[in-house]
Design a protein that fits this description.
Layout: H1 14-32, E1 44-49, H2 55-66, E2 70-75, H3 87-97, E3 100-104, H4 108-116, E4 122-124, H5 132-146, E5 153-157, H6 162-174, E6 177-181, H7 190-193, E7 201-203, H8 207-211, E8 216-219, H9 231-237, H10 245-250, E9 256-259, H11 271-274, H12 281-301
Parallel strand pairs: 1-2, 1-3, 3-4, 5-6, 5-8, 6-7, 8-9
Helix pairs in contact: 1-12, 2-12, 3-4, 5-12
The protein binds phosphoric acid mono(formamide)ester (CP) and norvaline.
The site of norvaline has 9 residues, from α6.
């Protein structure tokens, strides 16, 4: 089987996502019926974390165990990587002992260097630039609640970070629109986002205008991991970029609210929005596990006939 990695959203095409969302439905339904599905007995997933995580670690570990395999978690500071062992050497060693790898790290170039030295599939569990598993889970969640995302409008309010960049890549592949509003100085950088035209993306100086008529409003923390030194400055700069009830009222009446979590109530989102009736954040968190099981199965076993 051809070796493939999942390093950013555009590594797969529309047809592959359609397959993966169908497959996720099958895998999730089976799990909910308590039916065992263990195609990965005796296989091992290694997870490498250079940053904190709750959901990514839980969802990959629980999901891989459900598929019958076992998981090894490495926090890089506890390994020889933390003492300067070359990344390329670590990739060669890890990929001789396990069957698939998930990495959460800093620059995208780190995961690219790792994957070019890996004999097994590598999955991006978040980099400074992208968070593809999150958006796969979010779009599956949208489909569960509202049907196809094609032609819909997603409003992104806040920082043009890894999650925002991934929404932008997804919009081109799955043919929906993203309205982005960031404070001045925090605008989308198309090259960093990995998008080559703005046909599925529009910028708005006013966050309320970005939200107007949207099918989905989503946001994320003002200060991502690794940017903590800018926290005080960002709190000032992002003050007017909070998703609150007034902003939700400008969206379509049946608009959903999403947040990848962890969230800061009273900063990027008001408590009555994230805890309100339009919020689907807990479904998003759960669906990370189901989509990732479909992704792992696809990378390790290829397409499976249902
Ligand atoms: N959304 C997400 O990736 O959460 P964690 O940082 O807890 O893994
Ligand atoms: N943008 C956030 C996402 C956390 C899941 C970060 O990178 O910290």
């Amino acid at each position: 089987m051809e070796l493939r990695h999942y390093l950013q959203f555009k590594d797969f095409n529309r047809d592959e996502y359609e397959y993966l969302f169908d497959r996720t439905r099958w895998i999730k339904d089976k799990f909910k019926r308590y039916e065992r599905y263990q195609p990965l007995v005796d296989r091992t997933l290694a997870m490498v974390f250079e940053k904190h995580s709750t959901r990514t670690r839980l969802s990959f570990e629980a999901g891989f165990n459900q598929l019958g395999g076992s998981v090894i978690t490495l926090m890089t500071r506890d390994t020889q990587m933390g003492r300067g062992e070359p990344l390329e050497d670590v990739a060669r060693v890890i990929s001789r002992m396990v069957d698939i790898v998930m990495i959460r790290t800093f620059e995208q170039t780190i995961i690219e260097r790792f994957s070019s030295n890996s004999r097994v599939p590598v999955i991006n569990g978040l980099t400074n630039e992208y968070h593809p598993c999150q958006i796969m889970g979010d779009i599956f969640t949208y489909i569960e609640h509202r049907g196809s995302i094609k032609g819909k409008t997603v409003a992104w309010i806040g920082d043009s970070n890894n999650v925002c960049n991934t929404w932008l890549q997804a919009a081109s592949i799955l043919d929906f629109n993203v309205h982005v509003s960031t404070p001045p100085g925090y605008e989308v950088e198309p090259e960093r986002a990995g998008i080559h035209d703005d046909s599925h993306f529009e910028s708005f100086a006013d966050p309320l205008e970005a939200a107007r008529g949207a099918d989905l409003i989503t946001t994320d923390v003002w200060t991502s991991m690794g940017m903590e030194a800018e926290d005080a400055e960002r709190k000032r700069d992002f003050e007017d970029w909070q998703v609150d009830a007034d902003m939700m009222r400008l969206a379509k009446p049946d608009a959903l609210f999403m947040h990848c979590l962890p969230a800061h109530r009273g900063e990027e989102v008001a408590a009555n929005v994230i805890d309100g009736p339009q919020s689907v954040v807990w479904d998003e968190a759960e669906n990370r596990m189901h989509v990732q099981k479909a992704l792992i199965e696809f990378l390790m076993l290829g397409r499976t006939i249902i």
